[in-house]
Write a structure and sequence with these properties.
Layout lengths: L10 E4 L7 E3 L2 E6 L10 H8 L3 E4 L5 H4 L7 E4 L2 E2 L2 E2 L3 H13 L3 E6 L9 H11 L2 E5 L4 H9 L12 E5 L11 H4 L5 E5 L5 H10 L7 E6 L7 E6 L3 H5 L6 E5 L18 H6 L12
EC number: 2.1.1.107
InterPro entries: 4pyrrol_Mease, 4pyrrol_Methylase_sf, 4pyrrole_Mease_sub1, 4pyrrole_Mease_sub2, CobA/CysG_C, Siro_Cobalamin_biosynth
Family: Belongs to the precorrin methyltransferase family.
Length: 288
């Protein structure tokens, strides 16, 4: 069993008018909660969560994982959605520091992995600047869970010699990506936060030379009970992404030929791909 996070007992904040002259500094743990399934939580993440005085969590962290924290632990939801943030990132940074300076063990519980499009680097920098002890616990990022559940490897000796993780979301305008590099064949491109820009991403990749027939997999609600997978092509990506409501990944590349779709009903525009799915990669059907 992995060790439990130690409590930091170094002398710290002087409390004026309090019952104690000094209060021990706390610590911040940046913990990757994985994509949602509690079974994908690491032992170290579990132990950190069990030792928490306060849990500052993303909106995508499942209730099953949040319930692993002690009942005494305070929960603070700092959910982010497109164009709608409960707290701006700078305020989250200040909150983590303030809680730790108050002597608390703070778990910043983040979906996936803290350092993969999770802004963990910004929070770590804020803690370092304030002199707050900060630990990072890696988590299973959504791409790994999506790949495993769909049976579609991110790399494959015959069809994907590289994999690249990119974001489809930019603060202002379209994402600033090297489309020429991403358009090269025999590689997998995984796009986080790319559903709303799926049409633009497909357009840019095809304009840079990636074939419109290149397979693309959309995985919605990765690792959860309502996970849904849709296999399409780069040319059909925009249409297939319409109606996706939950958090989703876009995975583009030749290795997606090994993917299995989930058994949910097809949406408009998916029937053409489904007709030839059974003959790809030696599969006998499109359901698990």
């Amino acid at each position: 069993m992995a060790r439990q996070p130690p409590r930091n007992r170094k002398p710290g904040l002087v409390v004026i008018g309090g019952t104690r002259a000094q209060r021990a500094l706390g610590a911040v743990w940046l913990v990757g909660a994985g994509p949602g399934d509690p079974d994908l939580l690491t032992f170290r993440a579990f132990n950190a969560l069990r030792a928490a005085d306060v849990v500052v969590h993303d909106g995508l962290v499942s209730e099953e994982i949040l319930d692993l924290a002690p009942s005494r632990a305070r929960r603070i939801n700092v959910a982010k959605r497109k164009s709608r943030h409960t707290l701006p990132q700078d305020d989250i940074n200040q909150l983590l520091v303030a809680l730790a300076l108050d002597g608390l063990t703070v778990v910043r519980l983040k979906g996936g992995d803290p350092f993969l499009f999770g802004r963990g680097g910004e929070e770590l920098a804020a803690c370092r600047e304030a002199g707050v002890e900060c630990h990072v616990v890696p988590g299973v990022t959504a791409a790994l869970a999506a790949s495993a559940n769909a049976g579609a490897p991110l790399t494959h000796r015959g069809s994907a010699q590289a994999v690249t993780f990119v974001t489809g979301h930019a603060a202002h305008g379209e994402p600033d990506l090297d489309w020429t590099a991403l358009a090269r064949p025999n590689q997998t491109v995984v796009v986080y936060m790319g559903v709303s820009t799926a049409g633009l991403i497909a357009e840019r990749l095809m304009a840079a030379g990636r074939a419109g027939s290149t397979l693309a997999l959309i995985v919605e609600n990765v690792s959860r009970a309502d996970e849904r997978r849709v296999l399409t092509t780069l040319a059909g990506l925009a249409e297939a992404a319409q109606g996706v409501k939950g958090p989703a990944l876009l995975m583009v590349g030749e290795a997606m030929a090994m993917a299995q779709e989930s058994s949910a009903p097809l949406r408009q525009g998916e029937s053409e791909v489904s007709e030839w799915l059974p003959v790809m990669a030696g599969t006998s059907g499109v359901t698990e």
